[in-house]
Write a structure and sequence with these properties.
73% helix; single chain; elongated
Amino acid sequence: MKIQESGENYLETILILQNKNGYARSIDVANYLDFSKASVSRAMSILKEAGYIIMEANGNLVLTELGRVKAGSVYERHTLIARFLEMTLGVSSEIALQDSCRIEHIISEESFNRIKQYTQKNNA
């Protein structure tokens, strides 16, 4: 199932929060993204139906294997593209993070792999 950009952002946020705090709840996602609780609640229902997350009784959001793979892929793209923009092109850290958040969703697999190869080869 193809997931939209907003869904990818939610999954990535859940991954980031889990890595940072050991857990993620809808309220944490809403606060992190500065979105309304209602918007996040709706999105979590969609992600649950699509098989990307499990919503536990205590409110914790747990990535399924499918969700973990997708979130990890998005996060890798985000961080690698930001690093490339900073180290190779001299873009400020703040702008590189903002730009990479948009680029990560539309860049082709071929272009991303070339950036990845370049970055690994040049330790950028």
